[in-house]
Write a structure and sequence with these properties.
The chain is mostly helical. The chain contains 7 helices and no strands. Helices cover 54% and strands 0% of the residues.
């Protein structure tokens, strides 16, 4: 009798417990569970990319970056680090032109041409003034950028004394004739106003 009674009592208890659990579940707010479940489903659909900076100032003209206008899709497992800004063709041409001018100015005729170009661009001196400059610097150095006075230390086309005065233009004054010419023209303009006045001073004292 005892053994048959125990199973009969367990069945109603189990059924009652199940009913209570179902009632609790039915009354529980499952919104959070639904949202979490939704996020779990959609995370796998999100595409992950590496964003390029968007706050850099816009560049135009010769300063524009030579980068593709479209971005290719990323290969899974790889990061697109962007491209290095390329030097524009115009900037490269300016560097090449400057190098050519330095080489040109290492000859007397080339130095005279560079001086003429600088005068035309900045000082606007007349042909007579240019002739005075030619005479003056022919006396000083024969337009030789390596000319050096071992007694006084004067150096270059304009025979700057002391030679390191030319550092106000650039540090390469020992070997760059354009630096020497720029300094010489500036020196004449500031101190004498024109090459003919500087030449007159040289005629009187042998220096300027």
């Amino acid at each position: 009798m005892v053994n048959n009674w125990i199973p009969k009592m367990r069945k109603p208890a189990i059924a009652l417990g199940a009913a209570v659990i179902l009632a609790i579940l039915a009354s529980t707010d499952t919104t959070f569970a639904q949202v979490s479940f939704h996020r779990d489903l959609t995370l796998g659909d999100l595409s992950i990319s590496v964003a390029r900076p968007t706050t850099a100032p816009a560049l135009t003209g010769d300063q524009a970056l030579m980068v593709p206008t479209t971005t290719p899709p990323l290969t899974p497992g790889l990061l697109d680090l962007g491209s290095v800004p390329a030097v524009s063709a115009h900037q490269m041409s300016l560097v090449a032109l400057a190098s050519e001018q330095v080489q040109l100015a290492k000859t007397p005729d080339g130095a005279q041409q560079v001086a003429q170009d600088l005068i035309d661009a900045t000082y606007k001196w007349s042909p007579a003034q240019v002739q005075c400059l030619d005479t003056l610097w022919n006396r000083e150095s024969h337009w030789n950028f390596l000319a050096h006075n071992h007694r006084s230390g004067a150096h270059g086309i304009a025979q700057a004394l002391p030679a390191d005065k030319m550092e106000v233009i650039a540090m390469d004054w020992r070997t760059n004739p354009i630096t020497q010419i720029k300094w010489g023209l500036r020196y004449i303009s500031v101190r004498y106003g024109t090459p003919c006045v500087a030449l007159a001073k040289h005629n009187r004292s042998g220096n300027y």
